[in-house]
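Subgroup meeting minutes
Present: P.N., E.W., G.H.
Scribe: E.W.

1. P.N. recapped why we're keeping a running log of single-chain structure predictions: easier to compare across weeks, and new members can see raw inputs and outputs side by side.
2. G.H. added today's entry (536 aa).
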Amino acid sequence: MSSTDVQELKFVKNIFDNVHGFIPLTQVECDIVNHDLFQRLRNIKQLGLLDYVFPGAIHNRFNHSLGVMHIADKMVTTLQEKEHLIESSDTRQVIRLAALLHDIGHYPLSHIIEVPIRKDAKARFQQLPPPEGRLEVKALGEESESKDSGQIATLIERSSSHTLNYHLHQSINESLDYAHHERMASIIINKSGVMDILLDSGEIDQERIGDICQIISGSHSGLETAIIHSELDADRFDYLLRDSKQTGVIYGLFDLDQIIRHLDYLEPTTLDLDEGTSGLCVGYKGQKAVEDYLLARYFLYSTVIYQKTSIGFHHMASMVYEGLLERGFVPSYFDLIEIFDTGRIGRYMNFDDSFFWNTLKAVTSDPEKIDGEGEYQHSSTLDKLDEYRYSSDFIIECSKRLLARHPLKLVIEEQAIVQKGSSTSCSSEHLHHKAVIETICRDADIPKEWYIISNVKQDITELSPLVPLDDIDSYMRLRSDSIKIKKSDSSTKFLIRDPASIVQFLADKQLNIFAVYTKDAGYVKRILEAKNRYQN
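Output recorded in log:
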């Protein structure tokens, strides 16, 4: 092992981080950190509304992005010492920049607001003809397009921002997940002063900017992407350590240095590609540290991220945004690309957590009308048309609850670890079925929107960074069973196939958390009584 192959960088400044200590920055990185669009990340909390339950969880995407860059750099230098990632002279800087910018496209409250925006965008794209969409063939007499599909088709046809998004990430377009925050990063980088900073540095050209965007989105082929997108990536490493520290729990702690010290790379072979590996592996001396990392990830999620009260707040915020989105009161993906098409970057700057809270205040202060003074709000009334999924009364009530930190009431919750693919499920899972919900709500005499279901199904050893509670088929599915261990004789084995590894016993297990929430204690009583009558 030699340090002669590690690419040298000129660091000009250090930023102190409460997790990693001093983080050095190059000049181009300093310029990006000081840019308004990166500073915007200070106003987006890493864990959304989790500080409502764990008051210390007020860290933001700004801190996290610096941490990911720092860890990614440690991974790169270790791999370069082992003669990987040395084909291009600027690889180290490119990966650092991709790590630094990987969250620049995040929405308010992180993943909470991203879920309804992505669902809305995918639904609209499914109504469009190829190549951007996937027009569904309907039975005779059914409508095949939504009423605004023509308007959306015209917009994306003329949108340079969407065109860039479409062509830059063609390998993952099949998912129609154009609104994913990692794809939004490409638009922000290319349509703002961030691109000028990169080009003016004299180190990064337009082609490498494209590489940075593809590394961020996961559409780039090669080891560079694995540093940001794999089961052993800098993103997961940082959020575990940072979220544990900020929430005050110890469940997410693991030996990062031991994993990175023994990090290695397997050159792609047909076998590796067929079995879905990223190429990253860990030497056998780091195996226990990897197992501890996977277990730490599970315990942090089951204890903190999926804490029952926080899940209730999460659902309320997501439902409020979805209700306002279908009324046109808050930005959709199509509104955002139009902002970048017209160069009104300042409007995007205001799209942070404060925007969400200010919108709730506007809704609750004048229930009959949103005044339109905000950057994105339209002058209109919160009408009560049946075409909307959530009524105006429901949106207003949930908005008040979020502002006052008034949680939902838990009706029932079940947790179980089951075999993946088995028919075994929670005993009350039938309470999620549409017909059952309608029967119980009718019998209990409560609005169906106040029967709020939550169904989390997660592999024990496969937990991505803050997976949305109502996962909408992320375009990139990662597998913990792709982690390989490099033995002393240089042969490799999958971690889950090691008979001495605890992961072998957990890799085929799934954590199921079933829950029903509602408005108040009175509704809880009525739902439980109706449930008992239904079951009897």
